[in-house]
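Final paragraph of the annual report: two paired records, presented back to back.
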Amino acid sequence: MFGKRSRYVRLKDTTVTDAQGRTLQVKTIRLLPEAGSTFPYTVTETDRLDHLGYRAFQKSVSWWRICDANIGFMHPQELIGKASLKQCVIELSLADDGTLQNWNGFLHAVQDIAGVEQAFLEESVEVRGHTEVHGGEPRIIFREHFSCRLFLTVNAMITDTVDLYGEIAAIAAPGLTVSVPEMISRTGKDIEIPSGRGGGG
């Protein structure tokens, strides 16, 4: 049952058959409206979608219009960093003379950790010079220094940064330094707020 001002009330009814063979009456898919003018808003730590809906449209139930304007987010609470799925990054580095042969195995082991939904690596190589003395003469020797960033999507209801660090440090190969996970916060990031006033929920 939808209220008369609901964004779903005007959608057509249709029937579907579920996996158990039951016939159910449902609404058709709601297509996103054409994007109008928007203005950027910087997310704060205390934001709530219903409060943003009221500030923008004088109706707290109009928060869904903000979601419509930010189609890159799969869950409404992701816009303000309140969803259970969180992003974090871990810095990985090897000793100057270190090598890690099985990055693929390491990544699979990380993906098997409880609470880890997605994981991918971003590699970088930096050439560093240092002075060594050979035959009484100083020489600058250049060596490659490998580093890597591990980006994770984790379920914060299952794991936290302390547990995650312990699990990854335990499976890290000798010579591989693992930093404490840094959560990627939405605070300070921009979202789009539609201009004008809209309807209800």
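The closing record of the year follows.
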Amino acid sequence: MSRKLAIIASNGGLFDAYKVFNVATAAAATDQEVAIFFTFEGLNLIHKEAYSQLPMPEGKEHYQKGFEKANVPAIPELVEMAQEMGG
């Protein structure tokens, strides 16, 4: 069985970032080899100035309090975690 995971990040929104980095860190935590390919708007997810300022989608602002209450890491922290885990 292969222990490799490839993720294609082609969208660059906040929720897209959470999907990509949550899957990447979860897979890496289970000793899978993870590769993320960033393309198109997905490049915003690794651009240092862009990923720290990803806006909450319009009409979804109420999620921010839930993220804070659940101690969900910010995108810059998730990027760092994914890198530290070898992603």
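The CA atoms of residues 56 and 64 lie 8 Å apart. This concludes the annual technical report; the extension proposal builds directly on these records.
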